[in-house]
Amino acid sequence: xxxxxxxxxxxxxxxxxxxxxxxxxxxxxxxxxxxxxxxxxxxxxxxxxxxxxxxxxxxxxxxxxxxxxxxxxxxxxxxxxxxxxxxxxxxxxxxxxxxxxxxxxxxxxxxxxxxxxxxxxxxxxxxxxxxxxxxxxxxxxxxxxxxxxxxxxxxxxxxxxxxxxxxxxxxxxxxxxxxxxxxxxxxxxxxxxxxxxxxxxxxxxxxxxxxxxxxxxxxxxxxxxxxxxxxxxxxxxxxxxxxxxxxxxxxxxxxxxxxxxxx
Length: 263
Fold this sequence. Notes:
By secondary structure, the protein is of the alpha/beta class.
């Protein structure tokens, strides 16, 4: 059984009216009848241009937003039928790494509090054990213990993304949606983060849905690649097949449009 199974997932947004009351007819199919599976331990790279529906799909599979139609099953549990309490319990195993490493970290809190927040919500730990877990998580993402006492604005973009990754790892999840985690970083720092994610996958036994607009990044990290265009899944298959013998013209255009990166 797949770790995650998605069937017919659809998200439709009505087109809003402007201030004059016009423009209200029609709809936008942000995600349109998408079906896919992700096996435990693999990385499915989800690639496409901005506006293709990638991030919406990532949030739908975590039920951060509600779908218009379709089903999402995680470890055999139908996420869309779960009540708040059961969903909260399952969220321990499902986490997200956001695109913006600054906007996703509360500037009012020290790193210690940011990383410890999931543990405070889901586990009853002593203060000393919380500190120890935070230190362990910081070391896992290549940061020093002293970072725990500082605020997000004191760090570079790459360091802030490492903090966001540490927070996502706090509850030792099985599945992580990485939503464009390197797109806000320069190429060399982004390559370091990609390598870190690959290392953490081996160490923690993680399964990733890795969302990106960069085919070379996805090619390096992913076991399989899914290509989205205007809300639809136009192609999915093993990384080698997608990157060397793509069937869809849109996939070929993505491969031609992005330069290689050194990782």
